[in-house]
Amino acid sequence: VTACDLRLDSRRPLRDVKSVSYLTHRLIGDAARRAGAFEALALNEHDRLVEGSRSNIIVRLDGAWLTPPVQEGCLPGTVRRRLLESGAVTERPIAAQEITSIRSAALTNSLVGVLPIGQWDGRPLQIGSRLTELGRLVANPWRQA
Q: What does DSSP say about strands 123-124 and 104-109: parallel, antiparallel, or unpaired?
C-alpha cells in the first residue's frame, strides 16, 4: 500500500544512514499492518515515491526498471546498489501520479533480495521472469537455500 498520510523529508539529516532514529519508518510500517499489507511505500514532500518502511523499491515504467534517487530521501540499500551497479536498474524520480501506471514492481533489501509485489493499493501487478532474473543477479552467495 502507499502510505499517503505520512511523508519522508528528502532533506532530513542522516537520511542515508541506518540508525535507530527511524520513527517515521515505524509509523509507515504500522500503516502497512493496519491495511493488512506486507509493506507500505512512502512519498516525500514533493509527492514522489521514496521507499518502504524497511525496503527500497524498484518499478517497471516506460520499459525500464527504475528506483528513486537517494536525493528523494531513500536509504541507499545494498541490493539497490548492486542492481544499479549491474545496469539492470536506473535512478529516476517517480511521481505519485505514475504509481497507477506501474505494472510490475519489487521490494529490495538484504534479507529478501528482490521480492516481487503482487498487489499495490488493491491493483494486481505482474510478476514476470525478469524479476526472478533480477533476484538471481543479487543473490547472496553466503545465504544457504
A: unpaired
